[in-house]
Design goal:
105 residues, SH3 type barrels, single chain, 5 strands, five-stranded antiparallel sheet, alpha+beta
């Protein structure tokens, strides 16, 4: 068998010949950038008016309910006049969690 004809299927290639699978590299599809889960979760919090706390990268915490959100921002309405309503850029958010309905102070 000469080097120019491919070996029949099921037989290993001769020494020094590239393996057929090595000719075409296996490429994996990268994971999606956006799954939609974040938007669904924020919509649920907004619709049910669930109290949340948002911690920023600098440690500042804002508490309230989510009134509005988009790809880049979240608007948090403060409860009981605890301060002004704030727009927060998502790139500055470290954590967001649901607060218990009643807090003992």
């Amino acid at each position: 068998m000469d080097q120019t004809t491919p070996p029949p299927s099921g037989t290993p290639p001769p020494d020094g010949a590239p393996h057929p699978a090595a000719e075409r590299p296996q490429r994996r599809t990268p994971p999606p950038d956006v799954t939609g889960d974040e938007a669904a979760y924020l919509a649920q919090l907004r619709e049910k008016r669930v109290p949340v706390a948002v911690e920023l990268l600098d440690g500042t915490v804002f508490r309230g309910v989510i009134e509005y959100y988009d790809r880049d921002m979240i608007k948090v309405n403060r409860l009981d006049g605890a301060g002004p309503n704030v727009f927060i850029r998502k790139k500055h958010v470290r954590l967001l969690w649901e607060e218990p309905e009643t807090q003992a102070t």
